[in-house]
Design brief:
disordered N terminus; 18 strands; 642 residues; binds iron/sulfur cluster; alpha/beta; Rossmann fold
């Protein structure tokens, strides 16, 4: 590690003047002097003002957002901030950045940039408005809300419509999609929300975006495609960086879904006379169905095998030629700009499918997965670190990666390697100011069936029932698989006096709102609830983790990454599977204590944490809750809270 240079103006002294006891922040009613926040901010300042890379783990409650925003704004250069979640992006743009600008008493422009699909496309909205076709007729009332809003919105950003559900079908017909954008041929080009956003981004000092946009931008720039939204920048802060590898894998990969093809067909059919639609539709959808029958037995996600790839090659040619013929038959019968847009989309589908099905490469994993009623074919890069290094890390003057969980056993080796950071970097770990020793308890049963045995689930359910009784509901039960989540929910829902929800009951935001409002509810969920969820107060007093969240070694990408490490003569368990599981476990535990007044119990029903050597090592990198193996102690802990 390098020593941090301290010869710049964004020093601890400067930060102290802003965030310290006599600074402008101290006049705010919520002010709390945080020595560690000042230290962190001054280190961030030195990186931003000088150059280099910093990995900073800052536990929950350290105030890391202000710690990076103060030097980023004071720097007076463009800084891009990328978060994992839209929730953090909104919090930064709506609350933290305006506050930082106010206390610095400095002029600075900032802009929030979300994924294109979050914005209204004026061209496709105009077409829809003239001829609204709802796949789901119950959405017509919601459409009237959009119609009213569309005449007044200045940004076209869907999140302005708080009353609109997250998932809404007709939004996909009127939002911005790169593949169908008509660019300068569009009659709405001058007023387009996307291009307005791009123009504003060129003038902004601080850009608040998310990992998806960041890596989509890198991927587009790497392919020399001029469709990126972000302007040029060389100062970057990646918050929630523990999850950056996953987003990068998605955007450096290629995928095509069955729904994407169906939507293309739907958009073509919109252009022809209604009486001719049915006949044309059945002929082409038959070809699409035939292509997808090349793949038998599609579970959650699996690798493509050689037999189906060879069958799919023939069916792919036939499907693409059928789609192309259909498209060609529309020439001169539909507006030229629409015809060209549809052609671009078909070209994109065809090239992506050719890559997935036909390209022989050892650098990508080809897989198929079922997502609800949709089927997705993908090619995902095995080693995304090299791509991140080439397209992003090597181009930055200053780069800060931060999160509440970045290290494992005091080391940043795992995350730095996964994200392609091989050069010298600075690193710092700042403990959470929460007093885990007095605020909580960590229950690990000392004698419990192996998590892979048949006896595990019945025992886990019996223990969860006890724990929930002690805590009076107020619990998250976080599972490592959909199978466990469903099994636990099915038993508990008939055997509990508390309101109970399962992930998928309703959109995530609505589910959390219900959970908070009930005050004594149970939520049974899987991976997406292990991180980025913030429920403060008594409504969440128990977090149960079914087992150590090892990624399944049969998951195609995990399998390929394990194989890659083996071929290099490295130890995949200790270098990849174990640290990845430790980071997720830390995230899961992090759901419990979100403020200095929160109290509660975390339970992990996996005895390997205390019986295996690796479990004991993992335990050392977790928040320092007192550990107990006794359910009686858990019971008395909750009794004392009453
Ligand atoms: S330029 Fe593209 S994104 Fe903008 S309104 Fe036109 S089609 Fe939509």
């Amino acid at each position: 590690m390098k020593e941090v240079n301290s010869n710049f103006f964004l020093t601890e002294e400067f930060i102290e003047k802003v965030l310290g006891k006599n600074g402008p922040l101290s006049k705010m009613p919520f002010y709390e002097y945080r020595k560690e926040q000042i230290r962190l901010a001054s280190l961030f300042g030195e990186i931003l003002e000088g150059k280099g890379i910093m990995l900073a783990e800052a536990g929950t409650g350290t105030g890391k957002s202000l710690a990076y925003l103060i030097p980023a704004i004071a720097l007076k250069q463009r800084v891009v901030i990328a978060t994992r979640t839209k929730a953090l992006q909104d919090q930064l743009a709506d609350k933290d950045v305006p506050l930082a600008i106010e206390i610095l008493n400095q002029k600075a422009t900032y802009l929030k940039i979300k994924g294109k699909a979050n914005y209204l496309c004026l061209f496709y909205y105009d077409r829809f408005r003239r001829n609204p076709l709802f796949k789901d007729p119950s959405e017509t009332d919601l459409y009237s809300i959009v119609e009213k809003w569309a005449t007044t919105t200045k940004t076209g950003e869907k999140s302005e419509l708080k009353e609109l559900p997250e998932e809404i079908d007709f939004w996909n017909q009127i939002n911005i999609r790169q593949e169908r954008c008509l660019l300068s041929k569009c009659p709405f080009f001058e007023d387009c929300f996307l291009f307005r956003l791009k123009r504003n981004a060129e003038k902004a000092d601080i850009i608040i975006t998310n990992h998806h946009i960041l890596f989509a931008d890198c991927s587009l720039k790497a392919k020399n495609v001029s469709a990126s939204v972000l302007p040029s920048f060389n100062n970057l802060i990646i918050d929630e960086a523990h999850d950056a590898e996953d987003s990068a894998t998605t955007f450096f990969g290629v995928s095509v879904s069955k729904r994407m093809i169906e939507e293309w067909i739907y958009d073509c059919l919109r252009e022809i006379q209604p009486e001719k639609r049915h006949k044309r539709k059945s002929a082409i959808t038959e070809e699409v169905e035939r292509f997808f029958t090349s793949f038998a037995d599609i579970p959650e996600r699996r690798k493509l095998n050689i037999e189906e790839i060879s069958l799919a090659k023939n069916n792919l040619n036939s499907m693409i030629s059928s789609l192309s013929n259909f498209h060609a038959s529309l020439e001169k019968k539909i507006p030229e700009d629409i015809f060209i847009g549809l052609n671009e989309r078909l070209k994109n589908i065809s090239e992506s499918l050719s890559f997935i099905i036909e390209e022989e490469t050892r650098d990508y994993v080809k897989s198929i997965e079922k997502r609800n009623s949709n089927v997705v074919l993908s090619a995902s890069p095995i080693n995304v670190g090299n791509l991140i290094r080439e397209t992003l890390v090597s181009k930055m003057k200053s780069l800060i990666l931060t999160s509440a969980t970045l290290s494992v056993n005091d080391s940043f080796d795992y995350i730095s390697k996964r994200l392609g950071i091989n050069a010298d970097f600075h690193s710092i770990r700042i403990e959470s100011p929460f007093d885990f020793r007095s605020q909580g308890l960590f229950f690990i049963p000392d004698s419990f069936p192996d998590p892979n045995s048949e006896e595990f689930l019945p025992n886990a359910i019996a223990t969860i029932k006890n724990l929930i009784d002690f805590s009076n509901g107020r619990a998250f039960v976080l599972c490592t698989s959909i199978k466990n989540m469903k099994a636990i929910y099915e038993i508990l829902k008939n055997d509990t006096r508390f309101p109970i929800f399962i992930q998928g009951d309703m959109p995530k935001g609505a589910l959390l709102k219900e959970f908070r409002e009930k005050g004594n509810a149970i939520l049974v969920a899987t991976s997406s609830f292990w991180q980025g969820i913030d429920v403060q107060g008594e409504a969440l007093s128990l977090v149960v983790l079914d087992k150590i969240p090892f990624a399944s070694p049969s998951e195609p990408l995990v399998e390929a990454r394990i194989q890659e490490l083996k071929e290099k003569g490295e130890d995949p368990f200790n270098l990849y599977q174990l640290p990845m599981a430790a980071m997720i476990l830390k995230q899961g535990m992090g759901r419990l204590i979100r403020s200095k007044t929160d109290k509660g119990v975390v339970a992990c029903l996996d005895s390997r944490l205390i019986t295996k050597g690796y479990g004991k090592r993992m335990l050392k990198s977790l928040p320092p809750f007192p550990v107990t193996h006794s359910l009686d102690l858990v019971k008395s802990f909750f009794s004392r809270l009453k």
